[in-house]
Amino acid sequence: MFKIVKKVFVSVVGVIVIGLCFFLSGCAAQQEPQANQTTKYTMYIGLNDKDKYTQLISYEEAEKEVSDIALKYVDGFTELYAKGAYKDDKGILVHENSLVFEFYSVTDQQMKAIMDEVLKKLNQKSILIEKQTVNDEFYEGVKQ
Known about the structure:
It is elongated and about 60 Å long. It has helices spanning 2-28, 59-70, 108-121, and strands spanning 36-46, 78-87, 93-104, 128-136. The chain is an alpha+beta fold and 144 residues long. Helices cover 37% and strands 29% of the residues. A hairpin with a 5-residue loop joins strand 2 (78-87) and strand 3 (93-104). It contains 3 helices and 4 strands. The chain has a 4-stranded antiparallel sheet, with helices on one face. Helix 2 packs antiparallel against helix 3.
């Protein structure tokens, strides 16, 4: 009789332990939100006029022009001010103020449309575009 009670007790304890393991593993399985894989474009726009080699419009005016153009094609962006330098086709060192715009989850077609308009509006020879596959996530704080 004692052996039967012992077997039942061990079996009940085993079931409880297994149940706790499943319960606790379920708690541990709660994960942080997954980051989304998307394409990030970074657009670098020098502000010197391609013909005059000097900046003809202010940062503020250039920023407004590029922002207005971009928002015709995309829902948003991040912009930064920068300074750059390069040697031109004749080997002349050129320093210039620049605008940097970052875009997420947009298409090549949207970016080309933006760049085509910006090239004309700011009289630029070219715009540097960088394209990367990145993981992004909108963090909204700890959920309670």
